[in-house]
Design goal:
Structural class: mainly beta
Shape: elongated
Number of strands: 12
């Protein structure tokens, strides 16, 4: 039997998605969805595991999941509005870097090239790919993608909300 002390809360279930039993799941921003193999829900005071058959992104904070044994809209509807848990041992939460910041904490910061040239404001983080990227609104209103890599970041000034980066030549032209 699964006990509460073995669990970490990772989000909440939403409404069913379609008629085949898929369900919307709102995950906390520090959850690494690719590591999830099962969800645990509190059903009438008992922590019940549901194995994930498939998972796909819907929005930055929402995924659509197909769960083993949940094969129609009615079964999925019964799981609506439940807190979602994972086993602590499954290690599905992102660990903050040594400064205690997540990439998503940097949304709203301005990136400045080490040569002093403004690059733009971070408007989001794309983490559905193997390499996470900053989505940056450039001064000309275009969106540029910059890899989130420690070796590109020279300095983070949390007070001024500025990140100084050494951006390889040609990267902003992609």
């Amino acid at each position: 039997m699964i006990e509460e002390k073995e669990l970490v809360e990772i989000g909440k279930t939403g409404k069913p998605h379609g008629i085949h039993g898929e369900i919307n799941v709102y995950l906390d921003e520090d959850v690494i969805a690719d590591r999830l193999e099962k969800l645990i829900l509190n059903i009438d005071g008992i922590f019940v595991p549901f194995f994930i058959e498939s998972i796909r992104p819907k929005r930055i904070d929402t995924v659509i999941m197909a769960l083993d044994g949940i094969d129609n809209e009615q079964k999925a509807a019964a799981l609506t509005n439940h807190e979602v848990y994972a086993l602590i041992a499954d290690d599905v939460k992102e660990v903050p870097d040594e400064e205690g910041m997540y990439a998503s904490d940097l949304i709203g910061y301005t990136i400045v090239h080490v040569n002093g040239e403004p690059v733009g404001e971070i408007t989001g983080v794309e983490d559905s790919t193997e390499n996470a990227l900053f989505l940056v609104k450039a001064p000309d209103d275009t969106t540029v993608y910059i890899p989130i890599a420690d070796d590109l970041i020279d300095e983070i000034d949390a007070e001024k909300k500025i990140i100084i980066m050494t951006i390889p030549e040609g990267l902003l032209d992609l």
